[in-house]
Amino acid sequence: MPAPAARPASASTTVVRRYRAEPVWVPWVFLAPFLLSFGVFLVWPLIQSVVLACQQTFGPKSTAWVGFANFSFLLHDPLFWKAVSNTAIFAAGSVFLQLPVSLGLALLLNRPGLRGRTVFRLVFFAPSLVGLVFVGLLFALIFAPRTGLVNSVLHDFFPAFDPEFPWLQIYVMPALILAALWLYAGFNMVYFLAALQGVPEELMEAAALDGAGPWHRFRHIVLPEILPVGTFVVLMSLLGSLQLFELPYILLTGSGPDNRGLTIVMYLYDNGFVTGDLGYASAVGWVLALLMGSFALGQRWLNKRQEES
Amino acid sequence: MSLSNAQRQKLLLIPIYIALTVAGIFTLIPFAWLVCAAFKSNADIFTSNFLPLGDGFLGVAWTRLTLVNFVRLFKELGIGVALTNSVFLSATSALLATFCCSLAGYALAKFRFAGRGLVMSLVLAALVVPGSLLMAPGYKLLYDLGLLNSFAGLILPGLTPAFGVFLFRQAMVNAVPATLIESARIDGAGEFRIFFTIVLPLVRPMIGAYLMITFLGTWNNFIGPQIVLQDPASFPLSVAINQLRGLYGTDYGLIMSGTMISIAPVLALFLLLQKEFIAGLTSGAVKG
Q: Which residues of B touch A278 (CB under 8 A)?
């Protein structure tokens, strides 16, 4: 039955090959899961949180309208300000300790001719796979009196050192910052390394031939090139610090001695899920969101200024 | 006789190797210490730092190492259930999120339709909403929907993260040629078939990376299950090990082996998939 093959091919293909518009419904079907979960689990809770922020609740069931009282109580609660200042100290510690370490590691790894770069990168990156909960558990054990690694090593080297020394009772913030350094240094390093690999090699060589020392080359060639990534990493660290919860909550089994490990999100959690006032927790959430938003806007403003100059 | 340039370069690398090795040791020590402690009895944890000293090979008392902590965890304390819960939650979340995000990313990358710009700005808006703002109202919502204390209450809110939609859109804009899709349509392939047989294989590195990201994120999530789940039989490792520590706080061997069980699988998974993982991350970041 040779009939179909005998038909003149050219005529039919010009008709069929014409661009067939994709059916209108297709993208909407593909987007359905996103739109559905966006509406149900983002837009609706956001609206709810505005309403809740003006209510006092006891669990999800009983509520009372309090207007802006949550916010005025919040701003007058010394505990909230304690949480804010703890969070600020932690953020400063992470930015000023973590970022130089991350950048330093990246600079070392980026050295031309270095062997084993992949292995080193893997090693430094490994801690960032460990969740904050488990880092908290691990460092609680490391800083533990008597059995902890820190105390037993110190006691071995300096027999006068008291093996019962309670690090987590005394040096709360340094312990937190150190644990975060272990966790995030390699993670930030990956970003810096990617940026450093974008620095043109010829430019560095030309500068070296012209007699520019390592510091000058870093200051005038490398730094401008990696600055955008740098501000991005700073922003990420700040936003991450503002949302700090699990690490101190687990490491200190709560807010720590004298609330020295209390963070804003822990304050939110305690009020919302221990006391059961979801309304007040929503108000805390909004204040936190405002803080984070202002940091993000600040970073955009800085980036703009850099581009203009 | 002065050194050649190449030799000088090599000499200059020595301090760099030393610095990197020292940093590497500090990075690995917590892991090594944890693994050693997990295999020691509580008595040996008190008396030795890493491995118990003795007269075995390399001066280590290998015979004193023990599995007693793991036996207790699995036999007496039923940590196997928590392990299963973690695997189930992480795998389900990762598969569902990767599927839904790749679908949405494909729609935004390769279709022209009225409202696309609007949906794209919804995605970007969702990216900036902090999770902690949604904690309290999200809890109330799950209560209203009757999803508290269920796995669905943990999985559904993370069904289609905006971050994933964004990543897949970026990857597909360049990696999937429009002509390929068009010719498949001309050949009469259905839209879902095009998606599964043509589009998805082209972004395989991205799929690997995103599966890994969401798996890790769920595995390491603590606050979610802590708030949503109440029945101890449904706890994943993150919550279960923390509970264990509340009950057996001074039983260090138990806590250390529990922590090790929680960390080791994700590290192993990463080591197995790291090529795919890194390829996916860079393809998403560079080609965007």
A: 136-137, 139-140
